Amino acid sequence: MILIDKERCVGCGHCVPFCPVEALSVWGVVKVDHGLCIGCLTCTEYCPNKALRWDEG
Known about the structure:
Blueprint: E1 2-4, E2 24-27, E3 29-32, H1 42-46, E4 52-54
Antiparallel strand pairs: 1-4, 2-3
């Protein structure tokens, strides 16, 4: 599952348009709809602040 580091996320939304299943949205910080997320990790590559990361849990 994708986790958001709320201390690093500035809510810029740069990662949002790169999600192929539209699982990301911005509400102050980025939110992930884990029901939609396919774990492709594309968002982690495009976050300029490295605020998104994969967690096996």
